[in-house]
Amino acid sequence: MSSNSTTSESEKLLDALIQIVGQAHVLTGDQVNQRATHFWDSSPLIAKALVRPANTQQTSDVLKLCHEASQVVVTHGGLTGLVDGNHTTDADIVLSLERQTAIESVDEKGHTMVVQAGAILQKIQEAAAKTNLQFGLDLGARGSCTIGGNISTNAGGLSVLRYGMTREQVLGLEVVLADGTVLSSMNQMMKNNAGYDLKHLFIGSEGTLGVITRAVLRLRAATPHVDTAMLAFSSFEQVTDLLNDISASLNSSLDAFEVIWQPFYQLNTNPKIEGTSTAPLPASYPLYAIVETRSNQADSATDQFQQALENAMNNGLIQDAVIAQSEKERTNIWHIREHIDIALSHNPVFVYDISLPIADMGHYVETTISTLEKQWPGVIVYVYGHLADGNLHVLVAPPCESPVDEETRCNWQNISNDIVYIPLQDLGGSISAEHGIGLTKKAYLHYSRTPAEVELMKTLKQTLDPAGILNPGKII
Ligand SMILES: Cc1cc2nc3c(=O)[nH]c(=O)nc-3n(C[C@H](O)[C@H](O)[C@H](O)COP(=O)(O)OP(=O)(O)OC[C@H]3O[C@@H](n4cnc5c(N)ncnc54)[C@H](O)[C@@H]3O)c2cc1C
């Protein structure tokens, strides 16, 4: 095919897209390039066009057209995904959900909410709070990420311990398949065993099996009263003993249990660095944890929280502790855990999101750091994460005085990946706890999934997207 005929086919496709969504909603050239690639990367977005359908019908028409033209489509939500799942080339069409943001209804009796997939997580949280209910998903990117992105990545976050991953917050879905078929599976029921529960195919599928357009979300009773403490420990064993202890004493009110190894605490409380937190505890302990409970009874809950920590302290399970006395103090504590911009300013820095049995974590972190130090004396390794969910985030920053070239960076990344990922296989851990696979972890999928599992993933992809137009090359 000559380049002229390719150009004219491309123009025909853009004209047809304009017929569906209107001229103002097919962006090309500078209109695309003026947008950023990612939440953390301001380099220009590259794509043949960015299309903004207003509703499910338009999304279906766009996909039908792209399917017939074998046109690759990459769905974009809030662009906060961390595994390059939303990567595009100049041959791709971006399908953006930015006009499908409505919170359609809240059922206060049934504790459900119907939303369009482009709704921002924080807006969903706020809408639930207005009806004295709450949504059980929360994460640092809440102000930018969309529920469609959360569902497509099966996001985890800060309340998994209590409410589970995104999968547990979704009752029903509406998905547009690659050929434009609208699959309405908008179940509102907690119990519905009528055959295969198809929504689970799409949750965590990173835009490779369908485009999520609407969802029925499960809401919970509001727990507006929050108690938060920062704790310090002398050993990892002490951390896990405390987790067992307070899991029993605080029972279902325990909402978050986040662990932070010393280097990350020291970085984010360093008074010489702008934007850090005031240290609530001395930076001399090897380990810290943020513990948070939520309930709807202010006084009794605070008493129970304080009593549980006091008992733990008396039993030698905590070295030091501070309880937040105000929202300002609580925010200061959480900023230590959530503020990763300073750590990310190392160049290069390799970022991991892994899971493994809690009992193996202490030893795993020790041996991994020791292997990294043998490889790169002076390497900085930040470790923190959702301990109670078996999920750690590891940031590896090899020392270098000046920026390294791309080839060296890639070589170092591969070495670091092997050091972090290979031991997880024997421990039954995962190379991706909550961020997904995207492009970044694709080469390592087999570390966490068997050949039979990967084959079935390929079969599902082939069945649902035979032309391979939906986010091809991601995951598998
Ligand atoms: C500061 C910060 C903190 C974070 N904390 C956490 C955390 O604690 N836990 C966690 O799990 N993640 C976390 N993340 C990662 C990220 O926020 C989640 O992956 C989020 O769910 C992505 O949502 P998004 O709308 O930004 O999706 P995008 O980044 O736009 O897309 C992510 C993937 O989903 C696909 N996709 C998006 N929308 C749709 C749709 N409607 N239909 C089909 N496919 C779609 C895309 O093609 C892509 O593959 C964090 C990110 C940041 C920047």
Keywords:
Uridine Diphospho-n-acetylenolpyruvylglucosamine Reductase, domain 2; Alpha-Beta Plaits; 7-stranded antiparallel β-sheet; 6-stranded antiparallel β-sheet; 16 helices; 19 strands; 36% helix; binds flavin-adenine dinucleotide
Topology, element by element:
Elements: H1 3-21, E1 26-27, H2 30-33, E2 36-38, E3 41-44, E4 49-51, H3 56-68, E5 73-76, E6 93-96, E7 103-107, E8 112-116, H4 121-130, E9 133-135, H5 147-152, H6 160-163, E10 170-176, E11 182-185, H7 199-202, E12 211-221, E13 225-233, H8 236-250, E14 254-261, H9 262-268, E15 287-295, H10 298-314, E16 320-323, H11 327-338, H12 341-344, E17 350-355, H13 358-375, E18 380-386, E19 391-397, H14 406-427, H15 445-448, H16 451-464
Parallel strand pairs: 4-6, 5-6
Antiparallel strand pairs: 1-4, 2-3, 7-8, 8-12, 9-12, 10-11, 10-12, 13-15, 13-16, 14-15, 14-18, 17-19, 18-19
Helix pairs in contact: 1-3, 8-10, 13-14
Bound molecules: flavin-adenine dinucleotide.
The overall pLDDT, averaged over residues, is 95
Q: Under the CATH scheme, which class of the largest domain?
A: Alpha Beta
Query: What's the main sheet like?
Result: 7 strands, antiparallel
Gyration radius over CA: 23 Å
- The span between the termini is 29 Å
Hetero groups: flavin-adenine dinucleotide
Count the E strands: 19
Detail the poorly predicted runs. none
- What name does the CATH topology of the largest domain carry? Uridine Diphospho-n-acetylenolpyruvylglucosamine Reductase, domain 3
Named at the architecture level, the CATH assignment of the largest domain is 2-Layer Sandwich
Enumerate how many helices there are, as a single number. 16
How many structurally independent domains? 4
Portion in strands: 15-25%
**Percentage of residues assigned to helices:** 25-40%
The gross shape turns out to be globular
- Strands of the largest sheet, in order across it? 16-13-15-14-18-19-17
What structural class is derived from the secondary structure elements?
A: alpha+beta
